[in-house]
Amino acid sequence: MLESYVTPLLMSYVNKYIKNLKPSDLQLSLWGGDVVLSKLDLKLDVLEQELKLPFTFMSGHIHELRIHVPWTKLGSEPVVITINTMECILKLRDGAQDDHESGSSSTSRSVSDSSKAVAKPRRLQQAAPSDPDLPPGYVQSLIRRVVNNVNIVVNNLILKYVEDDIVLSVNITSAECYTVEDIWERAFMDITAPELVLRKVINFADCTVCLDKRNASGKIEFYQDPLLYKCSFRTRLHFTYDNINSKIPSVIKIQTMVESLKLSITDQQLPMFIRILELIIALYYGEIGGHKEGEGEDGSVHVREAGAILPGMDEDMESQGTSQYSSPDLYMESGCPEEGDQSWVTWAWSFVPAIVDPEEEFEEGLYQQRETGDIPNNPQQHTPKDPIVSIGFYCTKASVTFKLTETQSESSYYSPQKVKSREVLSLEQEGITIEVLMMGEPFFDCQIGFVGCRALCLKGIMGVRDFEENMNRREEDAVFFSCGDSLKSKGMTYLTNSLFDYRSPENNGVRAEFILDTANHKETYTEIAGMQRFGAFYMDYLYTMENSSGKDSQEFSVVSMEEVVPAIQETSIKRLVVGPLDVRLHSSAVHRILKMVTCAMDHEYEPYCKPQREMVEESHGAATPEEISSLEEFIPTRLTCLTLLSVSVTVSMAEFNLLHTLMPVIMGCKTAPGPGNMPVFQPVRPLPSVQFQVERVNVEHTVPMYAPELVSTVSSLSQPSDNLLHHCNAHLYLKVFGFQAGLTCQDSTGGFLPLIPIIPSFSTALYGKLIQMPAYWSKRSSVPTTECIFELPHFTVQATRAQTLLLQAICQSWTHSMVNGAPLTLSESLLREVYKGPGVKSPGPSPTLEGSVQNLELKFCSRATVKCASGTVGAVKVCARTPGSGEGVKEKLVPLIQGPSDTKELHMSRWLNEIRKPESLLAPDLLAFSVQVPQQEDDCRNSGAVLLVSVQGIAVNVDPVFCTWLLYQPHRGSSRQQAPGSVPLAKRREDEVSVGSTPLAKQPSNQASDYASSPVKTKTVTESRPLSIPMKVMPDTTAEESWASSEERMKELIAQAWDAVKRLTLQLELQSCCVFLPNDSLPSPSTIICGDIPGTVRSWYHNQASMPGTLVVCLPQISVLSAGHKYMEPLQELPFVVSKPILEEGDAFPWTVSLSQFSVYTLLGQQQSLSLLEPMGCTSTLAVTSHKLQSCSEGRHSFIVCLHVDLQPVHVKCSNPQVQLLYELLLSWSSTWARLQRHGILRQTSSIPEPPAGAAPSSPVRSSAGTALPDTSTCSPSADFGSPTEGDSVPAGDDGPFADTVTLEQKTNSIGGTSGKVSLWMQWMLPKVTVKLFAPDLTDKKTEICVIGELEDLSASVDVQDVYTKIKCKVGSFNIDHHRCRSFLLLMDGHNKKWKSNVKNNYASH
C-alpha cells in the first residue's frame, strides 16, 4: 500500500521530464528498490515551458539516473536519487531580441497557450492515483518523513551556453542535498514540536566555469584559463513552520557560504565576460526575451514586483504595470507589460511554494511536489499569509585576476596552439555579504556589503617589468586601490545573524525576528550601522508596497476591467555608502587600467537592444479630475542615495609613460604604435604626487517609477500643477564637502609626506533635473526640459612658483610619452624647495600667490525653443604672501587683484585726499550675466539671442612681487638621473599658440638647465635625442591636413561669428578697471581691510614718505548696446523676454559703444600726484550688414563693416619725474620680459633638452620627427580687422612665411578671399589734442618751463573695397606754446612762440 503512494510520485516526475520511458518497466524496477536508467534524453520543450526562460535548449542528456528506495527502512533511511553526468546546452531564444518590439513571437505564444491549456488537466491527472482512498494518518506521517529526507546527488553536471563566438560552460563535479540536525550534521529528521524546523544542506564540490571563443565552424581553437576553477561552496536551508500540519513554511532561509572565490579573466575573455553581463542586464530590464503572454482569464492582471535581486540596478526594479492610476486604460495604452513580462524576482518568487512544500489546493495530491509551471501569477490563490524568505550569499575572500595572453605554438604541426597567460592586475575583496529579505510582493529588501576591498598590480605590463618577483617591491607599493577594513579588525561581522553564525537565533533554537516595516527598517539599518558591520561598501535596497485604504494589498491584486484599482503606494529607496577610499594612480596602475579598457573594447558585438525613438501615442481620453487628484496625493518614485566617506585620490608623476599606444585605441583609432624597447624599470623615489581629498560626497537621484504612464497623463493636461511637473523630472542633487587638493611626495619608505595644500578645503553643490520622455513635451515651450544650478560659496588656489613648476612636471609626465619609455629626471633642489622640512630655512623665501572666488552661482535652463543661462560671481581676489625672512618679521600681504572695487572716483587723483568709504559687505556682485540662445530649428522666425553682462569695478596692482613669483628658479644643484642615457624633460606643459588649433613647433627651453638639468654630457643627449622624442598622448592631425584646413576653419569661424551676432541683443556694462603699476612692492598695511588695493595705495600715499612711484591707468567704463534695446537688469529669471526682440538678420546693428573716464596719472613720493592723461572718452557706432553671394555655391557671405568713432578732447601732461617713472617701469618690465623669454616661461617650450653647447642659445632646434611648423602667431584669427595684432613680434630665429609684417591690405584681402567679400569703412573724429611738457629750468631752479602743443579738428577715415583702399587724414590747426612759470607768479609769458598752420592731407591710392 505504501508503494501505491510513493511510486506515482516518483514516476510522474521521471516520466514528465524524460523521453521514451516505459512506465511498466520503471514501475517494476522501482518496486525492486533500485532503478538504473541510462542514456536518457530530456524533454526540452517541457523544460522551456516550465522555466519560462528566454533560452532554448539545444540538447539535454542524462548519462545515468539511479533511484534507490529502501522500502524496508523508509522510516530511518533516505530515498537517494543520483544523476551521473547531466549535460545541457542552451542558446538565446531565436527572435528574443525582437520580442519586446513585436509583442509575442509565434514561439512564445504557442508555448504560453499550450502551458495554459495543459495546466489544469495535468493537475487532475496527478491527483488521480489518490482518489479512491485517503492514506491513513500514520502513512501521512511516514510519507512526510520520506519527502523531508530525500537525498539528491548529482555527479558531473555540465551546462553550456553558446552565442556568437562565446561558449560559456559550467561544470560541477558533484552536488549533494541532504537533511541535517541542529548542528548541521547529516541525520534523518522530521518536523517536530515545539521547534517545527527542518534543516537541509547542499554541498557543491569543484565548480568550474570556463569562457572560451569558438571559430566560424564552431570549434574552440585554444582554451582559455577557467574563469573559476574547482570552487566549492555549501548552502544551508532552514525552514520554520507555524504548526506541524503546515504545508508551506512561515520562514525560509537559504544561505550559501564560499570560503574562497578566485576568478580569472584574460584579455580575450574580458569582452565575452562583459557581453554576458550585458545579456543579464538586458534580460533583467526586459529589453530582450520574456514571453509576451496575453491577459489572464481574470482580466487585466497587474503584476507588482517584489524588487530586484541584482545589485546596483537603477531602472525597472519595480513592476512594469502600475496600480497608481484609477483607470486601467490610462496606462495599458502605453504598452503596459502583461502577465508574462515580469521581473526575474517575481518569476523566482513564484517558485518558492514549489520548492518548499506541496500545495494546499488539492488535498488528494498532498504529497505530490508542485509543478513549477502551474503556479498562477495572481496572489489570490496563495495561502493567506506569504512566507518570509531570506536568501544570503557569503564569501570570506574573493579575488578577480586580470591576465594578458600570448599564443605559443607547439613543435608538432598538428598539435593545438597553447595560450600562455600573464597576471597583471588583481582585485581582492574580503567579507562579502549579499542578503535578500522578502515577504510576498509587498516587501523586498536587498543588502550588499564588503568588509574590505583592494586592487594591486602584478608582474609587468607592456614590457615594463615593474612588479616582477626579482624587483623586491613591497606589497604596499603594488596596492593602488584600498577601501574599508580587514577581517582581522572587523571579525566575522559580515556573517551576523546568518545560518553560518553560531550566535544567530536559528543556531540557538530561537525563532528569528524580521523587520518588515519601512519606518523600523530605516531606523535599524542606517548608514552608520552598515559601515560598522562592513566598512568598505554597504548597499540597502528597499521596496515596499502599501495600499492607503489599510487593507491587505493582496486582496486587490487581481482586478477586473470594471473595478476600481485601490491607491497602492509603492516606494523604492536605494542607499549606497562607500567607506574610506584610497586610490593611488601611478604609472603601473594607470597603464593596467587603460589596458583593460582597450581589451574590453576589442570586439565587434552588436548591442542587444538599440535605443528606440520615443513615439508619442495619442491619448485615448483626458484624465478625470479624480485621477488627477489621486496623482496629486502620491506618485511612486525611485530614490537612490550615494554617500562617499573620506575619499583620497593620489596622482603620482608618471614613472613611465606609454599612453601613446593606448589612448588612440580608446579614442576610436584602430591602430596605435607599439611600445619600443623598454629600459629596465627603476622606481622613482621620492615620487612627487598630487593628492585630492574629500571628506564627504552626497548624491541623490530621484526618478518617477512609471515614467511613460505618468508623462503621457500629465503632458495631456492643459495646465498641470507644479507638483505633477516636478515628478515628471529626474532630479539629481550633488553635494561635496571638504574637497581639497595639494602636493605630496612618496618617500623611499613608501609613505606619503603631509599634504601641502594647493586648493584649501571647500564645499560645493550641484542640482539638476531632466524631463522624462522629452518627445511628449516638444510642443510645450513653457516646460523646462533641463535645469542645472551650481553653487560655490568659496574657492581658493594658492601656490608658490616652485609648486607650480612641480605641478607642470607632473602634468607633462602624463601628457607626453617617451617613445623608449625613459623616465623623467627632476631637480633635487626643486623637490627640496617644495617639500622643505619645518625647520629648514630657504635662502630667499619665495612668495605664495593666492587667488579666491566667492559666491559663484550658475543656472542653466533648456526649453523646447530656447537655452538660457545666468550667473553671478560675488568677488575675486588675488594676492601674494611673502613669508617673513627672519625673527620678528611678519608675513607681508600684497594685494594684486580686487573685485568688486569702487572705481568710480579713481579716474581723478583727488580721491586720495577725500574720505573713502570702506568696501561694503553688501557690494553688488562682481559679475552678473544672463544669456538666452534660441534652439536651432527649421523655423528661423524665432527671436535672436540675448546677452546681458554687467561687470563691476576691478582694481589691479601689477606689483613687482608678481615678477618675483614668475621668475623664481630653483637653485642649481645635482639632479637625479633615473636611467642611463635618459633625457630630461622640461617641466611644464606648453600653451599652444595655434591658427585654428594648428599645432605649432615648440622651441627648446633654456629653462631645462635650471630645474630639470642632467649631468649627461652633450654628446649623450645628442645621440639619444632620436630615441627620446616626446610624443603627445592624444593623437594630432598631421601638419599637411592642418595647414590645408586652416583656410576652411577661417571660413567657418567668420560664418559662426556672424551667425552669433547677426540677431544678437547685446547689453554690456563694464565699470572702470583701475590698474596700479608701482616700481616697488606695495604690501597692504595691517590697519586696512585685507586685499583692498585703493585703500593700500591711499595708506601709502599719506603715511609713507618713501612711497614707490606708481603709474595709475584707469581703464574706461565701457557700455555696448544693440539697436533699439532698452536697459534691463543683467540678472534675469530664466527664461526672460526682451522688450524688442530681434527677428531679422542684421536688425541688431548698429551697436552703440561708449567709453568714458579713461585716464592716466602718476603717484610720486611726498604726496605728489601728477596727471598724465586727463579723463577722456569716446562714442562709437558699429554697423555690419551681410548678404549671401549669388555666384558662390558654398553660401559665403559678403560683409560691409562701418565704424564711426567720436573722441572727446585729449589732454596729455608730462614732466621729468613722470618720464623717469615710466622709464624705470619700462626698464623693469622689459628686463622681466626678456628673462621670461630666456627661461622659456612665455615661449613655446619643448620636452627636447637644450641644444649642444656650441649652438647659439636662440637658434631653434627642430624636432627630428619632421612635424615642426613655423610660428604663425601674426595670423591670429582673433586679430582685429582694422589694427595690427598685439604681440605680433616673432621670436628670434623664426624665419617662417609669416615672419614679415602683415599689412592691413594683405590681411583684409586674405579675409575677403576666405569668406567672400569684405568692405570696410572706418572714421575717427577728434576735436582737440593738447600735449603739455613740464621741465625745471636748469638756470633757475625756482622756474618751471612748459611747452604746450595743440592740434584741433582731427579726423581720419579708411575705406577698403575690393578694388581700392582709400585713407583720408585731416588736421584743422596745429599750435605750439612755450611758457615759463615762477613760484611767485601764476604764469609769466617769457618766450612766446606760436606757429599756426593748416595742414590738410588727402591721400588716395587706387
Which features would summarize this protein structure in a list?
1406 residues, alpha+beta, 44 strands, elongated, Vacuolar protein sorting-associated protein 13B isoform X6, VPS13_N, transport, VPS13B
What does this structure look like?
This protein is of the alpha+beta class. Among the domains are: 1-157, no CATH class; 850-968 and 1063-1166, no CATH class; 1174-1234 and 1304-1406, no CATH class. 20% of the residues lie in helices and 35% in strands. The chain contains 28 helices and 44 strands. The strands form four sheets. It has a 38-stranded mixed β-sheet that branches. A two-stranded antiparallel ribbon has the order 12-13. It has a two-stranded antiparallel ribbon with strand order 23-32. A hairpin with an 8-residue loop joins strand 38 (1168-1188) and strand 39. Helix 1 (3-17) crosses helix 2 and helix 20 (801-815) packs across helix 21. The radius of gyration is 41 Å and the shape is elongated. Residues 97-134, 290-345, 353-383, 551-565, 974-1028, 1243-1315 and 1384-1406 have low confidence and may be disordered.
Show the helix and strand layout.
Layout: H1 3-17, H2 23-31, E1 34-41, H3 44-51, E2 55-68, E3 80-92, H4 96-102, H5 106-127, H6 137-148, E4 151-163, E5 166-180, E6 197-213, E7 228-240, E8 251-266, H7 269-284, H8 328-332, H9 344-349, H10 352-356, E9 388-408, E10 418-439, E11 443-457, E12 459-461, E13 464-467, H11 475-478, E14 479-484, H12 487-490, H13 518-524, H14 527-533, E15 537-547, E16 568-578, E17 581-585, H15 587-600, H16 625-633, E18 637-652, H17 663-666, E19 687-704, H18 707-714, H19 722-727, E20 729-746, E21 756-771, E22 786-800, H20 801-815, E23 816-818, E24 826-827, H21 828-834, E25 848-862, E26 866-882, E27 892-899, E28 927-934, E29 946-951, E30 954-957, H22 960-966, E31 975-976, H23 1008-1011, H24 1018-1024, E32 1030-1032, H25 1039-1061, E33 1065-1070, E34 1073-1078, H26 1093-1103, E35 1110-1114, E36 1117-1121, E37 1151-1164, E38 1168-1188, E39 1197-1207, E40 1210-1214, H27 1216-1238, H28 1304-1315, E41 1318-1336, E42 1343-1360, E43 1365-1382, E44 1399-1405
Parallel strand pairs: 3-4, 8-9, 16-18, 17-18, 29-33, 30-34, 39-41, 40-41
Antiparallel strand pairs: 1-2, 2-3, 4-5, 5-6, 6-7, 7-8, 9-10, 10-11, 11-14, 11-15, 12-13, 14-17, 15-16, 18-19, 19-20, 20-21, 21-22, 22-25, 23-32, 24-31, 25-26, 26-27, 26-28, 27-30, 28-29, 33-36, 34-35, 35-37, 36-37, 37-38, 38-39, 41-42, 42-43, 43-44
Pfam family, one: VPS13_N
Protein name: Vacuolar protein sorting-associated protein 13B isoform X6
Region (Disordered): 96-133, 973-1023, 1244-1299
